[in-house]
Amino acid sequence: MTETATPTSALVVEEQETRPGFIGTSVPRKEDRRLVQGEGVFFDDVKRYGMGFVHFVRSPYAHAKIKSIDVARALELKDVYGTLTGDEVAILTDPFFEMSVPPGSEIKDYALAVGKTRFVGEPVAAVVAATRELARDAAELVEVEYEPLDPLVDARRAQDSDAPILHEDAGSNVVWEGVFDWGDWEGTVAEADRIVRIKELHFDRFSSTPLECSGCLVEFNRGTGQWTMYCNHQMPGIGAIWMAPALRVGTDKLRFVTQDIGGAFGNKICLHPYFVACCLLARKLNRPVQWTEWRTDQHTANAHGNERWFEETEVAVKADGTLLGFKTHAIDDCGAFPRYEPLGCIIWAQVTPGCYRWQNVYVDFTQVATNKSPVSPNRGYSRMQHLWFTERVIDIVANELGLDPVDVRKRNYVKADEFPWTTPNGCVYDSGDYARCLDIALELVGYDGIDKRRRDAESRGKLLGIGIGSTLDSGTNNFGQSQLLNPELQFSGNNEVATVKLDIFGEVVVTLGTVPQGQGHETTAAQVVADALGISPDDVTVRPGHDTYWNSHAGFSGTYASQFAVTGLGAVKGAVDQLAGEIRTIAAAVLGGVPEDAVVLEGGFAKLRENPEAAIPFMGIGAIVNANNAILPEEARHVTLNCRYVYVPPFEVPDTERKYGNLTLTYASQIHVCVLEVDPETGAYEIVDYAAVDDCGNRIHPQIVEGQVHGATAQALGAATHETFTYDEQGNLLTPNFYDYHVPHALDMPPLKTGYIESPSPFTSLGAKGMGEGGGAGIHAVCAALQDALRPVGNPIVYDSCNPPHRVWELISNPAESRGRISVESR
Amino acid sequence: MSEPVAQKTISVEVNGTTYEREVEARRLLVHFLRDDLDLTGTHVGCDTGNCGACSVIVDGTLLKSCMMLAIQADGASIETVEGLGADGELNPLQQAFGEHHALQCGYCTPGMLMSAKALLDENPEPTEGEIRRAIQGNICRCTGYVNIVEAIAAAAEAGR
Amino acid sequence: MLLASVEYARPRSLDEALSLLAANPNARALAGGQTLINVMKARIAAPELLVDLNDVPELRGIRETDDGLELGAMVTYTQLARAEEVHRERPILAEVAAQIADVQVRNRGTVGGNVCSNDPTNHLPPVLVAVGATMAIAGASGIRLVPAEEFFLGVYLTAVGPGELLTGISVPRRQGGDGFASVTIGADGTCIANAAASVNGDVRVVLGCVAATPVVVEAPSADDEAVRKAVAGAELDPPSDIHAPAEYRRQLAGVLAARAARQAREEAA
Ligand SMILES: Cc1cc2nc3c(=O)[nH]c(=O)nc-3n(C[C@H](O)[C@H](O)[C@H](O)COP(=O)(O)OP(=O)(O)OC[C@H]3O[C@@H](n4cnc5c(N)ncnc54)[C@H](O)[C@@H]3O)c2cc1C
Ligand code: FES
Ligand code: FES
């Protein structure tokens, strides 16, 4: 055990601009009081009279035909309420909608396996019983006869002529493929002094594994034909778009209710197959049904992050380290069903050149299905894989050309005075100063003294390495990017909703469309509302969670893709500005027909600017509009004090021919630096120093921002050091729960040093940028630091995103293997 | 002679209140607390005993309630997160968790608080290393632990 | 997460516990439950009857004897890590016990459970073999003593037969020095490989995680080279898994053996 040094203190490098009010200050979080008392309401806390517990019967095979299913013995058990099988599902529902073009669009995805299973853990039947334990007993009595088929586990083999085909309807394992060709690759090659070739890089499978698993309690109302789901779906709008057509109803028949969610990180977006099964059971059995996913279920059969291979990469470089362009063939493994995919095939393009001024990029991208768990947009979704690739390329190029990784970065970063910067594919980086962030990070780890530390480590038999991870957190999607995959898709832009009302006794009540999972939305929304109305956040009630009945959501509502500070708070700002206007309207009318701009809002009163004695409390205004409106003049009677606002970011539909256009609104940046020491005899290593510098524009609540940086960094360090979903040749997951899938504990985390700068976004109302997903920088930084540390022992190349001790030892004991992946051509 | 039983009426004191319930021998203590007593502050985050979300204090011993049977707790006195504050007031640990932003989603928090309480009950002046060791059995996927460690140190300070 | 139906009994004496076990061939002793309840949650094990040992007084407590220590089978890791007697007589036991898992697991998990489950990655089996412990096993025909070296028979298999219980472990007083080294999955995590060593004139190194049972290696001396050579000569055939290919475990065995021996050597000096 190492005693770790004192924890973080944020290095404040910018004289904090003084902003009046609560925005920009770390007010106490509204969520905390209930949560520290154990009085949060998570889905599994909800109970209903007579509810039954659902247990899924899951496939033990990665790939098999289902020959028969017999539920008779399960039904014989006392207090078993009923069952559901794939055959019923195929009759009662339609397959979920697929986003891809052929062949991917031909894939048939149902709530339960129909005819065939395609990954270990796939649900093939469900049982409902009076207790959790009994439901499992009964599930064990369901007899399923399988005919095992060869599984496809390695994505690189998916297109081989003898590869097993997962989806016969599609006739191919390719879900989507396309070429992205921006700039002039051939011209770049001609211009280059060196071509660095990298045979293969691999971004491993892992996921953020929220501590709370998924689940729902579903009630069916026979009278109205409506389902209510108390659940932890993080994106109900999209959930309803999948579920309603499958269930052959309108979205009005689906009500999602969430209060507290125990983390989600994208892993709770693709819950629709499970929820549809539960909806069918609630209707069939005419009773509430409850499904709790256990950890092993979550790991084997819910949502992983995308695994990606980068084959035959070529990098065009000038002798001085100026990067001209790159070419690669990406193979993305989305597991057995695409679900949210193939969106990941395009999302990476939001950050095509990473933090760099690369102008020529050629990517041949193929996504394939394999007999593994499906994927879901895991924190850093698709950009993380790509940014890891670009950072690996930078460090490999620096290593092979004998250049300093700091210099190569600084030479090629987009410069502070070049923003807004347009990438070769038309994305617009709004603001930033990457070089400055890097300097701060290097200073935090004492870069100047690094040689001395290297020698000190050496004297203790250790190898010290330092590595940089530069990354972007692109926030607020333009869903028009889906048209780059499938021009037929009628998605574009983005939206988010908030409602702010002043109630009869003067209560200020906010409802959000977002579905928070720990990001503190109740608090930050209250800050924005308080500032606009001249009250305190304590005076603002923000309803926790989400309820379809609030009518406070739109098609893209949810918490994902680092956008709340922009879309969520943009909606809150729009709504509260409207409400403030309405309050002024009433006050102006009641206080004697003065113009509205003569009214100011302060301390819970609407007052006349010139005569503060003339004031009416919010309570009075609420009461007049709600219960005493006959006193109002005609021109004030339209006022409802219940303002709903839909924030729509300024996007256009991208050019689908050229795959060109702006795909995201804001670009927060994170520069991490990692210092580690490797034990060369065992490959075990310890991170001894770590700095994370963040720039997310104006920070609404600095403490929450810093918390996101810590958390995202911890996830990245887990992914870099241990977390991997690895399968054996039969398609069995070898890390199916926290016993073998090791996530960082308090003792595993190094002391974190954090710093920040604020480069306000010119494109958002609060100057804020979405953030929270940029922690991936930690994976890049660890890989870079390992490569640096191992230079004296054969200079191996770090080619995988996850490097547990055994892989480090393999790099050390056989450097030639990884060095064989690299070649440099001088021209 | 103690006869084997498949179920039994047990009597358990939780946060000062005594409950009597019939339980099956196979029922885990965590499910007894959550489902039978509706004390849902204690959470479940894994199925292998790794995460600590279910941590409670039984007869003065911190343990994970997913690895103990409810029937084993017959006659025991149990402390859970719901019992930490008196009359709705937050105790210094709960207070410090809020002030130091030691929780995001709050799912690990009840277990984390129980581990922190067990630590401070025994060692009112822990070092940072001792704090980290004390919460090593509690996984948090949101915070990276930095603020949790700070909050526990601050609560210890406040308690002095 | 959900157990199959099971019966439960809580005997108040060793005799009672033994007769409950004898009466039902599908009964299992329940100690700390930190392994057994987990395998029951996974329904890998589904005994008919759990015989809870927590109220059996004969299995409790740590005693100092003329030769060293007597550990009751139900002594927890926390007790082991804290007991003054242990720090006095055989401190390596406390040192290793404090590294097992986390506070909660240490508060419940027992010495007896650790060795009776004989998971090849567990911490205590190699240590107890290295220190030359003796296990006391009680059955219908009384108590028999088994040296630790002969106690571990296979993965999850020990000398404790059906209807028997491990009652205690006696550990001789330290004469020379002891050592322990491991590479774990994360800090204080499950062992990928471990080694325990005891130096008292002769050198005894015991390797964990490289076979179904602890592997004893006798080295001519405790210096690094001699130990590494002895390990290399042991022709280990370690298992491969997600955390370590066999080749890597073999490498670790040599490195960790040398480190454990170094600690023992320095302690003995
Ligand atoms: C998260 C976690 C991490 C862990 N990490 C580690 C680790 O790093 N290293 C490590 O060594 N262990 C580790 N363990 C396992 C832990 O040490 C267990 O406590 C131990 O393996 C079993 O001890 P127990 O007292 O809990 O026994 P139980 O689980 O109750 O019993 C285990 C087995 O032993 C039998 N048994 C128990 N006592 C007796 C007896 N007196 N006579 C006969 N049979 C008996 C039982 O019938 C059962 O088959 C970990 C456990 C968890 C939950
Ligand atoms: S639920 Fe008990 S340790 Fe995870
Ligand atoms: S706050 Fe979410 S798991 Fe800890």
Describe the secondary structure blueprint for this structure.
The complex is a heterotrimer of chains A (827), B (160) and C (269).
Chain A: E1 11-12, H1 32-36, E2 52-58, E3 64-70, H2 72-76, E4 80-85, H3 86-92, E5 116-117, E6 123-129, H4 132-141, E7 143-148, E8 174-182, H5 185-191, E9 194-203, E10 215-221, E11 226-231, H6 236-247, E12 254-258, H7 272-285, E13 289-292, H8 295-301, E14 307-317, E15 323-333, H9 344-347, E16 360-368, H10 383-401, H11 405-412, E17 421-422, E18 428-429, H12 434-444, H13 450-459, E19 463-477, E20 496-502, E21 508-512, H14 521-533, E22 540-542, E23 546-547, H15 564-590, E24 599-602, E25 605-608, E26 615-617, H16 618-627, E27 642-647, E28 664-678, E29 685-695, H17 702-721, E30 753-756, H18 777-789, H19 805-813, H20 815-819, E31 822-826
Parallel strand pairs in A: 1-30, 2-13, 11-12, 15-16, 21-22, 29-30
Antiparallel strand pairs in A: 2-6, 3-5, 3-7, 4-6, 8-16, 9-14, 9-31, 10-11, 10-13, 12-23, 14-15, 17-18, 19-28, 20-21, 20-27, 24-25, 25-26, 28-29
Helix pairs in contact in A: 6-7, 10-18, 14-15, 17-18
Chain B: E1 7-14, E2 17-24, H1 29-36, E3 55-58, E4 61-64, E5 77-79, H2 92-99, H3 109-122, H4 128-134, H5 146-159
Parallel strand pairs in B: 1-5
Antiparallel strand pairs in B: 1-2, 3-4, 3-5
Chain C: E1 7-9, H1 14-23, E2 27-30, H2 36-41, E3 49-52, E4 62-64, E5 68-72, H3 77-82, H4 84-89, H5 91-97, H6 103-108, H7 111-117, H8 124-130, E6 134-139, E7 142-147, H9 148-151, E8 152-154, E9 157-158, E10 165-172, E11 177-184, E12 191-200, E13 202-208, E14 215-219, H10 224-232, H11 246-268
Parallel strand pairs in C: 1-3, 2-3
Antiparallel strand pairs in C: 4-5, 5-10, 6-7, 6-10, 8-9, 11-12, 12-13, 13-14
Helix pairs in contact in C: 10-11
Query: Overall 3D geometry of chain B?
Result: elongated
With strands numbered from the N-terminus, the spatial order across the biggest sheet of chain B is 2-1-5-3-4
CATH-derived topology of the largest domain in chain B: Ubiquitin-like (UB roll)
Name the average pLDDT of chain A: 94
Helicity of chain A, as a percent range: 25-40%
Walk me through what this model shows.
The complex is a heterotrimer of chains A (827), B (160) and C (269). Chain A has 827 residues and is an alpha+beta fold. Chain A folds into three domains: 43-149 and 213-261 and 269-301, Aldehyde oxidase/xanthine dehydrogenase, a/b hammerhead (Aldehyde Oxidoreductase, domain 3), CATH 3.90.1170; 182-207 and 303-480 and 654-820, Aldehyde oxidase/xanthine dehydrogenase, molybdopterin binding domain (Aldehyde Oxidoreductase, domain 4), CATH 3.30.365; 496-647, Aldehyde Oxidoreductase, domain 4 (2-Layer Sandwich), CATH 3.30.365. In chain A, 26% of the residues lie in helices and 24% in strands. In chain A, strands 4-6-2-13-10-11-12-23 form an eight-stranded mixed beta sheet. In chain A, strand 25 (605-608) and strand 26 form a beta hairpin. In chain A, helix 6 crosses helix 7 (272-285) and helix 14 (521-533) packs parallel to helix 15. The radius of gyration of chain A is 28 Å and the shape is globular. The longest helix of chain B is centred in the last third of the chain and has 14 residues, at 109-122. In chain B, a hairpin with a 2-residue loop joins strand 3 (55-58) and strand 4. Chain B is of the alpha+beta class. Chain B has five helices and five strands; from the N terminus they run ββαβββαααα. Chain B has a five-stranded mixed beta sheet with strand order 2-1-5-3-4, with helices on both faces. Chain B folds into two domains: 7-83, Roll (Ubiquitin-like (UB roll)), CATH 3.10.20.30; 92-159, [2Fe-2S]-binding domain (DNA polymerase, domain 1). In chain C, strand 2, helix 2 (36-41) and strand 3 form a beta-alpha-beta unit. The termini of chain C are far apart. Chain C folds into three domains: 7-52, Uridine Diphospho-n-acetylenolpyruvylglucosamine Reductase, domain 2 (2-Layer Sandwich); 57-172, Uridine Diphospho-n-acetylenolpyruvylglucosamine Reductase, domain 3 (2-Layer Sandwich); 177-268, Enolase-like, domain 1. Chain C has 269 residues and is of the alpha+beta class. The chains are: A alpha+beta (827), B alpha+beta (160), C alpha+beta (269). At the A-B interface, helix 1 and helix 17 of A face helix 1, helix 2, helix 3, helix 4 and helix 5 of B. Bound molecules: flavin-adenine dinucleotide (FAD) and FE2/S2 (inorganic) cluster (2 copies). Residues 44-46, 49-54, 64, 66 of chain B line the site of one FE2/S2 (inorganic) cluster.
